[in-house]
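Checklist before submission:
- one chain only
- standard amino acids only
- sequence pasted in full

Submission:
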Amino acid sequence: MKKGYRALLLDIDGTILDENGVLTKRTSDAIRRAVNEGIVVILTTGRSVPGTTYIHQQLDLTTPCICFNGLIIFDPDSEEWMRVSELPQEALQSLKEWAHDLTTFFFVTTKDTYYTVTAQSQEQHRIMELVGSVRQLPSFDELPKNGVVKVQCFCSDNQRIELCKRVEESPWAKKIKKRFFPLETLPELADFPLVYVDLEPASRGKAEAVLYVEETYGIPYDEVIAVGDQVNDIPMIEAAGLGVAMGNAHEDLKTKADLIIGGNYDDGLATFIEGMLDG
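Returned file contents:
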């Protein structure tokens, strides 16, 4: 790969996958070629471990996956949980109570399981079908009391405002990160009526992937390329030597990127990788 880049950090939705959520043959072939030419390719995503390893297996990657925006590092080959960040215990009960009182519905998520109180709304059933394996519990009191990675909230705009206000006014506000994701960017949820807020441990987000590559592979940040399409990709775009935004990316990400390439609707990632490898 030209200019001495040795690692490639790739977001999944909106980056590797096309506008229909499909991994095209051309993109798959380009990523495989990068691996065959010695590039360290790591999936760096907001997805859960199961949602990430599915794509990981399709690409025959052997590197660990960086999931939940840097909160988890998991090696599918050895099934080793290399890093798991958890919400501070002193904050957890309040976060669960606020999510229960102030949202339409919510998940309490450990490293490998989504938990929720028995589904009541059509919206909750819809998200559960998309997520896949969700453990429904009959009451709030049975939700996990430790080992929680994040609380995932689905709410109206007014609910979101009040929820965030509670967090910001709490004594442990600096230990909690509020992360927003536009669900309408996912093909399956283009018409979804609720907003999505993650309450998770404070971290550097996807920039954790850049640090991990340096610590594990000895590849410094200026030899790392990061590619993404959403605001949760900004930390790794800024931390990498070359930050790349997809043509379909959020405008806030495009303003931070060093380079804007084609969209996921026309194999923009594949075109970029092919061009870099061809030099």
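Reviewer check: The chain has ten helices and 14 strands.
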